[in-house]
């Protein structure tokens, strides 16, 4: 396609065209996204820009988006998810839901990307990343990222901390304080 100045503009795939409404006059550039038009996300920030279009890059995306809420214990072969009170074995598909969310976040990466070619590659990668095999690979790659790796002995290490419904009690002092991820508590007394 010809631009008003007579230069060729790279064509966009329909997915990228939906993500980025207009291109600037510079070849290969799109205007920065309008923050007011961006969807509001109440989750953790998206992955940092520049991650590779690979399963390893997607594993890093998952950790960047949701790593604060996830831990993986290799000895158990299990994921744990923070439920706002304690770390709980993921027996309900939480890791898969978060991986799908991380895959969908690649569309936002594409929308923020100023380079049209890279934006198109990101949009295509977002589609491919939502396939079952790619989601499973993302989860597998994330399991070895240091930010989420934990050992069995890391959990419930302080026998004087008791998590209850409204906080964590220090059994030495009787002090009740808010639930904390860093405590790495998995048990909950329902009182």
Rg result: 21 Å
Q: Would you identify the regions where 5 or more consecutive residues have pLDDT less than 50?
A: 1-45
Q: Give a short account of the largest sheet.
A: 4 strands, mixed
**N→C terminal distance:** 67 Å
* Rounded mean pLDDT score: 81
Q: How many beta strands in the DSSP annotation?
A: 7
Helical run tally: 5
Q: Order of strands in the sheet with the most strands?
A: 3-2-1-4
Strand content: 5-15%
Structural class: alpha+beta
Q: What order do the SSEs take from the amino end to the carboxyl end, as H and E?
A: HHEEEHHHEEEE
Q: Based on CA inertia axes, which overall geometry fits?
A: elongated
Percent helix: 25-40%
Pick out its properties.
single chain, alpha+beta, 4-stranded mixed sheet, 3-stranded antiparallel sheet, elongated
What order do the helices and strands come in, and which of them pair?
Elements: H1 14-19, H2 55-66, E1 70-73, E2 78-82, E3 87-89, H3 94-112, H4 116-129, H5 132-142, E4 149-150, E5 161-164, E6 167-170, E7 176-177
Parallel strand pairs: 1-4
Antiparallel strand pairs: 1-2, 2-3, 5-6, 6-7
Describe what this molecule looks like in 3D.
The chain is an alpha+beta fold. Helix content is 32%, strand content 13%. The chain has five helices and seven strands; from the N terminus they run H-H-E-E-E-H-H-H-E-E-E-E. The relative contact order is 0.17.
Brief digest:
The chain is an alpha+beta fold and 191 residues long. The chain is built from 5 helices and 7 strands; from the N terminus they run ααβββαααββββ. Helix content is 32%, strand content 13%.
């Amino acid at each position: 396609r010809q631009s008003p100045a007579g230069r060729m503009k790279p064509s966009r795939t329909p997915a990228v065209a939906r993500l980025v409404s207009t291109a600037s006059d510079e070849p290969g550039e799109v205007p920065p996204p309008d923050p007011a038009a961006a969807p509001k996300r109440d989750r953790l920030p998206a992955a940092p820009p520049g991650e590779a279009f690979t399963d390893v890059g997607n594993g890093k995306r998952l950790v960047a988006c949701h790593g604060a809420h996830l831990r993986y214990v290799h000895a158990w072969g299990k994921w744990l998810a923070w439920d706002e009170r304690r770390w709980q074995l993921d027996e309900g598909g939480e890791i898969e839901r978060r991986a799908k969310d991380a895959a969908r976040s690649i569309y936002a990466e594409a929308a923020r990307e100023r380079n049209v070619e890279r934006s198109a590659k990101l949009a295509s990668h977002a589609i491919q990343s939502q396939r079952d095999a790619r989601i499973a690979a993302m989860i597998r790659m994330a399991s070895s990222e240091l930010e989420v790796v934990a050992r069995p002995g890391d959990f419930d290490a302080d026998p004087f901390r008791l998590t209850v419904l409204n906080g964590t009690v220090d059994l030495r002092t009787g002090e009740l304080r808010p639930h904390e991820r860093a405590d790495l508590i998995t048990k909950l007394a329902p009182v």
